[in-house]
TrEMBL record:
Protein name in the entry: Rieske domain-containing protein
Domain spans labelled Rieske: 1-101
Gene3D superfamilies in the cross-refs: Rieske [2Fe-2S] iron-sulphur domain
Keywords: 2Fe-2S, Iron, Iron-sulfur, Metal-binding
PANTHER family per record: PTHR40261, RIESKE DOMAIN-CONTAINING PROTEIN
Lineage per the UniProt record: Bacteria, Pseudomonadati, Pseudomonadota, Gammaproteobacteria, Oceanospirillales
Organism the protein comes from: Terasakiispira papahanaumokuakeensis
Amino acid sequence: MPIPTLGEKRPAATTLEIDGHAIILVRLKHHWRAYLNQCPHRGIPLDWTPGQVLDQSGQLLLCAMHGALFHPENGHCLAGPCQGKALVAIDIEVTQNRLWLSLPSPERSA
């Protein structure tokens, strides 16, 4: 997929769906991270408003359901009911101004 424009804010995050997988795409200063858009607490998407997954500070990923906060660099839960767990990371590579995601197998994303 071509690299999307996410604005000037750092980090920047959005959500999208690819082949039935709900994805969180995060741009950090000079690299990208991707996670399944699935809170480890209840298995629901983090965003209630499509594409809105950052907290008010714009620094952490936020689960809108229970307020769990996740570090955008590694997906680890920093606060909330899933503390000690992490978002499921998706391998991501940037080649020729395109992002390549290695989507998880169905049993890993369930």
